[in-house]
Amino acid sequence: MGLVPGGGYAEFALVHETNALPVPDGLSPTEAGAIPETYFTVWTNVFERGRLTQGETFLVHGGTSGIGTTAIQLAKAFGATVIATAGSPAKCEACRRLGADLAIDYRAQDFVAEVMAFTGMRGVDLILDMVGGSYIQRNIEACATEGRIVQIGVQEGSVASVDVRRLMLKRLTFTGSTLRIRTVADKAAIAVALEAQVWPRLARGEVRPLVHATFPLREASRAHALMESSAHIGKIVLIP
What we know:
The chain is of the alpha/beta class. The chain contains ten helices and eight strands. Helices cover 39% and strands 18% of the residues. The two termini are 14 Å apart.
């Protein structure tokens, strides 16, 4: 399996040898196809940039997305308390099955209030957010003092009105990253860390890629329609 820089919708695709990894024992090629993009993204943002450690409390938005399902499992495997947001009771239940200690239906509940109640008004140590927009200020409110926020997407928008005083008073770290534009060497370093830290857990079945559906490559448009419906839980995989 490998992390390609683009052009992955194909029977054959080029990937630099340092950005390729062996398929862990016990995983099918379909499961392997669901791994690289999400595991590279979660590892570099949650554990390297976000510095999540054992015993901390972690909030991930979009808990049933490919990124979310991966983040929940890895954070739990490394000893964190995990909170996830999702868009329905069924999706919240899916988050709990994956290991989330608290799942919040963001359509029916205020995630800031729920987070603060769950943590005894302390807040969370780390937030992984792909929403942006109005969530940016709300994430600041949901963070504990000395907390960290890692932005990896802006589904609601990249521009927001933010009270920076709250960030200052809590001494927060607000950072973010994208994966595709990083160098081959950067991605190779992530691959080395993954093989050492995560691949044994995949081989033991402690964490698994969650595949919601597969489609033949020629039906990629149907896969995108499913993705845009937000009805999926986990990854959608194309089969050449």
